[in-house]
Structures are given as structure tokens and as C-alpha cells.
Design brief:
Layout: H1 9-56, E1 62-65, H2 68-77, E2 86-94, E3 97-105, E4 116-122, E5 127-134, H3 148-151, E6 164-166, E7 176-178, H4 184-204
Parallel strand pairs: 6-7
Antiparallel strand pairs: 1-2, 2-3, 3-4, 4-5
Length: about 210
Amino acid sequence: MANNVKIDWKNVFKLGFILLAISAVAACLLALTNYATAGTIVQLNEQTNKAARQEVLSEATDFEQIPPEDLAKIATEIGIENPGEVVEAFIGTNGGAVVGYTVKTAPTSGYAGEIQMLTGISADGLITGISILKNNETPGLGANAVLPAFRDQYKEKSALKEVTVVKTTPETGSNAIQAITGATITSRAVTSGVNMANQVYQTLSK
């Protein structure tokens, strides 16, 4: 003979209400925390980006942002496959004179996805430096893109033509950089970001 199980619906509803109340309070607290820290996060991000701009274009004392709508138009016109990978661009000045440009790009072709980076280019068309802002590349391999040994290869390369990637030591005077050992995909992704910046520079400097 089967046993009839009697469900105490009053207790079930009580427990459900308690769980709902706990979830609601947790959600409200999370929302309040996000609201309270949003301004600080934005400020910290801007400080980080400003420091990066100064790092890759040290000659500049002031930076003026290219309007986002203008940059989006440029990215489309020059044929960037994914225009959204061109994030922002600034004109760097010193004493009112243009000394170069910084272009933030986010190529999505990294081994682990998007790589946020910044490229500095002088007014006369030479890459002055790059900075890797965010990446999820493999530690000890692609993550080594942040190291000066790799980043510094781009300095003094021409922004007027494509930068290429080779697996051996580049020929002297070439516009090539040597890939990180075991991380060719990351190296190509970073170089893709640099080349997007070069294309933006070529349009802005006309």
C-alpha cells in the first residue's frame, strides 16, 4: 500500500518567500554597490588610459580626443573588417603643436580573444610605442606580449606601411617584428592592432 505524502504548502510558500526576500536584498545591495563604485571605476580607467597615452607618446603634454562618431566613420572608410575594434583615438600636442597620435584598438584575434592595446605614433609617421592594456592570453606565452622585450620591437617602425610578423630575427631596416616563441597567434593579433592604428593615423594626418 502506497504511503500518501502530505505536503505542507504553508511551509513551502514560507520558505519560498524567504528565499525570494534574500535574493531581492542581495540584488539591491549589489546594485547599490555598482552605483556607488561606478564613478570610481570610470575615473580609474581614465587615469590608466591617460597614463598609457603618456607612455606611448611621451612628447605630448595634452591630448584631444577624436569624436567617436568621426572615428567610427574613419574605421569604416579605411575598410577595417570589424570597425568596433578601433576604440578611440587622441591627437597629442605640445605647446599647441601636434606631436603625434594615440589609437586604442581591441583586436579579437588573440589566442584567448580580445586584446586591448594602445599605439603611439609620432607626427612624422613613426611608431613611438605600444601598451597592452588588457588581455587573457596564456601565462608564459602570449601574456609575454606585455613585456618590453616584445613591445619595444614596434618602436621606430613606420606607420606608413604594414608591420609584419616573422618567426626569426627580422632583417635590419625591415618593418617586421619577431613573434613571441610559442605565441605566434598573439603576436599577430597585437600586430593587427598596431596596423589598424597605422591606418587610422594615415587618415588623421592627411
